[in-house]
Give the backbone structure.
Amino acid sequence: MALNKKGSRHITVDEIEYRWRIHRKPTYMQGLCWTPMTYAVEAAGGSQPGTTLVVTSGQAHPSNWMGVETGPIRPAHVAASIREARDRGWEPIQVGSPFRLDRRSAGPIAQP
């Protein structure tokens, strides 16, 4: 599964380049705040897509329909997620099923 390049952002973590993306529109469950927002990460280099990292953020989608306030996902949160997934065995350049990482217990995302 490859990320759509349109709308994705680049980040470099430990000298490896990745792309990450949040869907603009929430899923039905995210829109009702029944499930938290997720975002996807993949290695940016290479000719073939590898394993996608799917991170559950622990906060509501910004476009939720319930009016729940939420903050942005910052690059520091993405970098921490990438490092944690790598420590747990995510191999971004190998082909395979999406690797899921639940960061709900990581605590709230700090707001400026």
User: Anything to note?
Assistant: The mean pLDDT is 89.
